Amino acid sequence: MTNQDLIKSHDEYVMGTYGRFPIAISHGKGAELYDFDGKTYVDFASGIGVNSIGYGNPEWIKAIADQAAKLGHVSNLYYTEPAAKVAEILCKQTGYSKVFFANSGAESNEGLIKLTRKYSNDKYGSGRSNIVTLEGSFHGRTVTTISATGQEVFHQHFFPFTEGFRFVKPGDLEALKASCADDTCAVMLELIQGEGGVLPLDKAFVGEVAAFCKEQDILLLIDEVQTGIGRTGSLFAFEQYGILPDAVSFAKGIAGGVPFGGFMVNEKCSGVLTPGTHATTYGGNPLGAAGASVVLDTLTDEMLAEVQAKGQYIQDRVKAMESPYVTEVRGLGLMIGILLEGVSHRELVGKLGEAGLLALVAGSATLRLLPPLTITYEEIDKGLAILQTALCN
Ligand SMILES: *Cc1c(COP(=O)(O)O)cnc(C)c1O
Q1: Residue 328: Cβ within 10 Å count
Q2: Residue owning the nearest CA to atom 6 of ligand 1
Q3: For residue 205, what are the contacts with CB-CB under 8 A and spacing of at least 6?
Q4: Sheet holding 360-362: strands in order across?
Q5: 223 lines ligand 1 (CB under 6 A)
Q6: pLDDT class for 393, splitting at 50, 70, 90?
Q7: pLDDT over threshold 90, residue 49
Q8: What is the residue with the minimal CA distance to atom 8 of ligand 1?
Q9: What is residue 201's DSSP assignment?
Q10: Ligand 1 in reach of 251 Cβ (< 6 A)
Q11: How many A from CA of 142 to the centre of ligand 1?
Q12: 65 within domain boundaries
C-alpha cells in the first residue's frame, strides 16, 4: 500500500472534517515516523502533544499489552487497580485531593465547568453561574467548551451556544475584575495559550488573578490539557507560575497516545460532584491508566530538567538561524512558538512535511513545536536542519 492508496480509501468513507496533509503514517520509533511510501519524518508535533514519550517505548507497550490481557475495561460501578494508581501518583506529586478521569481535553474541561457551577450553586444558590475566560483561548469542541473558547471563529454554525461565558483580554486585570461582577463562579485560563499562538500569560497577572479569585471565592480553573504532564518542563505549568489553582484539567500527553484525561481538585472542591451528577463510561479505563502510569513514571525530576534544557536549546538554535521570516521565538520547555512574518504558517508546515519534518501551526502566524518529551539531541538536530533549510532559503 502507498500513501495515495490509503488516502483514497480513507477519504471515501471518513468525513472530511480535517484539513489533512497528504501524508499517511504507518508506524513510529523514538521521535521519528514512517509513511506508507517508506519516507521518514522527524516528529516535532507528537500528535499535538499526545505522544509524550515518543513511539515504540517498550515499557508503555508492555504495560498496555499486559493490561489488555488482564482486563481491558470494566464499568465505573466497580473498582480497578490502574486508575487507583494514576490518581495516587497525581495527587501525591501535586498536593491535590481528588481526581476525576475523563477521555479527552474537551470532556475534562466540561467537567471543570460542571464542577464550578455546582460548587457555586450548592453554596450560594442560583445567579452565580458566569465563567470568565480569555480572548484567544481554546478549551475544546463540544458545544459548551466552544462557548467557553474566546475566539469568534468558533462561535458560528452551531447555535444556540451555552450561556454564561465572558471574555477578557489576557493581561487586563481590571477588565477581568469588572467582568466577574457578582454573578461569577469561576475564571478559566490556559497559562500558555496553545492553539491561540503559544502565548504565555504574564506571571504577575496570573498571580493577581489567583489572589482576586481567592478573595471572592471564585474558583480558579486552569486548562492544562496542552501544557500539563511535563510539556513545559514541570509536571504542570502552574508550578512555574507560583499558584495553586482550585482545579486543573489534563489530557493530551497523559497516557502517551491512548485517549485519557481528567481533572484534579483541591480539598474545597473534592466533595462537589456526587453520585449521579457526573460520570463517563470509559473514564479511568484500565488501558489508558496503564499508559498513564508509564508516562508519569518516566517524568522524573531529571527528565523534566532535560525538557527545559532541550526547549532552551531549540529556542537558541532557531534564534541563531537569523531567518528573515522569524520575528519572535517563545515558549516554555518543549512547547515552542515561532512567530512568522512574510510566510504563511500553513504553507510552511506543508513544506516542512514534504522535507521530512512534522510541525504544527498556532494562532494566525505561529509555527508551533511540540516534540515528544523524550526526543534525543540527535533527533532534534535532524529536525532543526530541515527547519533551517525552510526558514533560511
Ligand atoms: C487540545 C486542547 C483541548 C481539547 O482537547 P481534545 O482532547 O481535543 O478534546 C482543550 N484545551 C486545550 C488547552 C487544548 O490544547
Answers
A1: 12
A2: 105
A3: 170, 171, 173
A4: 326-332, 335-340, 366-369, 360-362
A5: yes
A6: confident
A7: yes
A8: 105
A9: P
A10: yes
A11: 10
A12: no
Alpha-carbon gap, residue 27 to 53, rounded angstroms = 15
Burial of 104 (0-12, 13-18, 19+ CB in 10 A): buried
In which residue are the cell numbers 531549540 written? Answer: 314
The contacts of residue 164 (CB under 8 Å, 6+ apart) are: 129, 130, 131, 147
* Listed residues 298, 313, 337: the one ending a domain: 298
Distance 389 CA to ligand 1 centre (A): 31
Does ligand 1 have an atom closer than 6 angstroms to the CB of 139? yes
- Which of 137, 138, 141 to probe ligand 1 with, by most ligand atoms within 8 A of CB? 138
Pocket of ligand 1 contains residue 231 by CB under 6 Å = no
Q: Range of 105's domain? A: 71-298
- Looking at the structure, do residues 374 and 226 belong to the same domain, yes or no? no
Same domain, 202 and 236: yes
Buried-state track 189-224, b at ≥16 Cβ within 10 A, e below 16: bbbbbbbbbbbbbeeebbeebbebbeeeebbbbbbb
CATH number at residue 49: 3.90.1150.10
Q: Measuring from atom 5 of ligand 1, which residue has the nearest CA?
A: 105
Cβ(105) – ligand 1 distance below 6 Å = yes
Give the nearest ligand 1 atom to 141 CA. 9
- Decide if pLDDT at 283 tops 90: yes
DSSP structure class, residue 159: P
Whether 64 is covered by a domain: the verdict is: no
Q: Are residues 142 and 277 in the same domain?
A: yes
pLDDT at 270: 98
Decide if 183 contacts 129 (C-beta within 8 A): yes
Residue 199: CATH number of its domain: 3.40.640.10
Residue 210 placed within a domain: yes
Query: Is the pTM higher than 0.90?
Result: yes
Judgement on whether residues 166 and 272 belong to the same structural domain of the protein: yes
Of 305, 363, 375, the residue nearest 338 (C-alpha): 363
Q: What is the mean pLDDT of residues 255-262?
A: 98
Check if 195 has its Cβ closer than 6 Å to any atom of ligand 1.
Answer: yes
354 alpha carbon to ligand 1 midpoint, in Å? 27
Q: Are residues 178 and 264 in the same domain?
A: yes
Q: Are 86 and 290 in contact (CB under 8 A)?
A: no
Interior angle at CA 121, CA 119 and CA 124, nearest 5: 100
- The angle subtended at Cα 124 by Cα 123 and Cα 127, nearest 5°, is 140
